[in-house]
Design a protein that fits this description.
343 residues; alpha+beta; Deoxyribonuclease I, Chain A; 34% helix; hydrolase
């Protein structure tokens, strides 16, 4: 560190800490939460670590210092992680070999039944949004029965409220016939669940899986972390990831047993840097955002950095033609859609 003054040396020391932390975070997708629950919590901070390292890189680049190599090398080593934050896809149109099918997933937050927003017309807004996008299949999480005015557009549906006394659950709406359906009924005390429906379009049958993995009892924002004891918060988040792992394993079994090609989508309550995401994607599925998305692909209204916790994963035999995300203010999540060719 010759030629650096004491302040630059201090900054490079901080730079080294963040670079090592980011390098270590690349191992998190390979460590099951059940092995080390608290460690899995740090997967939520990977975008922040990338941002800090990128800022350090620009700082040293502006100063024309060779110290820029540290963050640059660490960022390049995690290039696949970088594309999970920001994606640049080709704008060339792909001609489908068969009639395309458009799917959309959306955590609707009970259509504002509990007054999280001042607006009283959210069910109507979401109904108009869905009709405007005109998807063939929709999966919804935290669906509040009876609030959506789309019945004429989607004659086939499967709505599951895991608990008879529950006011909300999961829903699948389809323009095409549903010939089979089912629920995984996640064990453990949880309102979360996964359901599936086998949808027939022409000569093709597609299994659609709608997942809502274990939610956090506390919303991951700084205000809560300031008010609550940090140790208790992180312990609770660690146990959430352990529950997600058990739920994910049930979903993986469903994927493996499917007699049809499939699309798996919904609210994972986890990021693309997690063990949960890696295991689901490793079952012959690809991430539609990484194939055809553009920009940050943000799906959760988190004010500090873009957070992508809702996904559309598809069978590798399908061809993704288009991916879209919509920052509409009707929930704490943003809907996403993908258009596929059933080759």
């Amino acid at each position: 560190m010759r030629g650096l003054n004491w302040f630059d040396k201090f900054l490079f020391f901080l730079n080294s800490l963040f670079a090592v932390a980011l390098l270590f975070s690349y191992l998190l997708p390979y460590i099951p939460p059940s092995t080390f629950a608290l460690l899995s919590v740090f997967s939520l901070g990977v975008p922040f670590l990338m941002l800090v390292n990128f800022i350090f890189f620009l700082f040293w680049l502006f100063r024309l210092r060779r110290q820029l190599l540290l963050s640059l090398i660490v960022l390049l080593l995690g290039f696949n992680h970088l594309t999970s934050i920001y994606e640049i896809s080709s704008e060339e149109e792909v001609t489908p070999e068969a009639d395309p099918i458009k799917v959309l997933t959306y955590n609707v937050r009970q259509f504002n039944q509990y007054g999280w927003a001042d607006r009283k017309d959210i069910p109507q807004k979401i109904s108009r949004f869905v009709k405007g996008q005109d998807p063939d299949i929709i999966t919804m999480q935290e669906y509040y029965r009876g609030e959506l005015n789309i019945a004429n557009s989607f004659p086939y549906k499967y709505i599951n409220q895991k608990d008879q006394n529950a006011e909300f659950g999961l829903a699948i709406f389809s323009k095409f016939p549903i010939i089979n359906q089912g629920s995984l009924d996640f064990p453990t005390k949880s309102n979360n669940n996964a359901i599936y429906a086998d949808v027939v379009k022409g000569d093709d049958t597609l299994r659609v899986i709608n997942v809502h993995l274990q939610s956090f009892s506390l919303k991951p924002n700084m205000d809560k972390l300031e008010k609550e004891h940090s140790k208790r918060v992180f312990l609770g988040m660690g146990q959430t990831f352990v529950k997600q792992q058990r739920q994910m394993e049930l979903v993986v079994d469903l994927v493996k047993s499917s007699p049809y090609r499939l699309v798996l989508m919904g609210d994972f309550n986890n990021t693309a840097y997690s063990y949960i995401y890696r295991e689901l994607k490793s079952e012959g599925l690809f991430d539609a955002y990484k194939e055809a998305g553009n920009g940050f692909g943000r799906t959760f209204d988190y004010k500090f950095f873009p957070l992508r916790i809702d996904f559309i994963l598809a069978d590798e035999s399908l061809e993704v033609l288009k991916f879209e995300d919509y920052e509409v203010p009707y929930s704490d999540h943003f809907p996403i859609s993908a258009t596929f060719s059933l080759k």
